[in-house]
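S1.2 Input.
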Amino acid sequence: MSAAPQERVIHDSRDAVSPGKAEAAVSTGDLPLLGDVEAALAGARSRYASDDSGQVADYIPALATEDPALFGLAVADVRGLVTYSGDSEHRFSIQSVSKAFVFALVDEALGHDTVRRAVGVNNTGLPFDSILAIELNRGSPVNPMVNAGALATTALVPGRDATEQWDFVREGLSRFAGRELELDERVYASESAANQRNESIARLLGSYGRLQGDPSEVTDVYTRQCSLAVSTRDLAVMGATLAAGGVNPLTGERVVDAAVCRDTLAALASSGMYERSGDWLYEVGMPGKSGVSGAVLTVSPGKAGLAVFSPRLDATGNSVRGQRATHYLSGALGLNLFASAPVNGRQG
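S1.3 Output.
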């Protein structure tokens, strides 16, 4: 799916909290008080619950059966406090949001320079499943957030075979979430049956010598990682782990190094929302990642992870309510990395 060139990630400026209003926060400092966070989440849900624009993804048959009315929101701060609203415990497949965390695990295992050379970190400017982007870049996967780069990243996962690689991915993402994640077998079977394009991408990468391992096995591990079942609350905690320098704020376990979080958030900032990543940073001001199940995850380093789930998608494959609620909450909770207050109150 690709958007018309003039389409913007955020469609309505009313989603933003005006900087002149008292409730607008800035990126420096801490999150607002608990009651204010709860009120902001409830306010976002109230604002956008009636927005029925967009369509549930149907190119993966199992996703087409999701209830379009579902709407969950969650914020997890770096101290371990999780605040949520709506259908935040409903479980869905993680899909492309998994790309960020598998990249982090591989970066931790192999190192900054190795991953940069093997995968790349630049935006393609083309849709997430573009084959043209591979050809234009002489076989380079370009970045880990598009499907080609995600497949190349998954191929780098440590393990003697596909079984060990899958175990490494599942266990690693479970540490990010702070609980054991399970495969959604129904989604996995459905996605495997409709996975010809990803396998074609893997084979094309292999023809350029840019994919380690058998393309079919790599595609299968990648499909499994996308089929892990998570909740909105889980994603917020996973985001908070990146925000907290790699330490899960619920379990206290160090999942990855702080430098790996920096690498991962940089890749998300440049490419996490695909060809609309520039629009996303301009409007929302946080590294983010979406998934076709309806999830939008964003991270404010040193503060929190914010996750929203709503299955109706726009033409680019991003959750309509998820984008709008994230835009609103970025301002309401002071998560925009580019928003700051005058020093010492000086107005100029």
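S1.4 Remarks. The CA atoms of residues 272 and 289 lie 5 Å apart.
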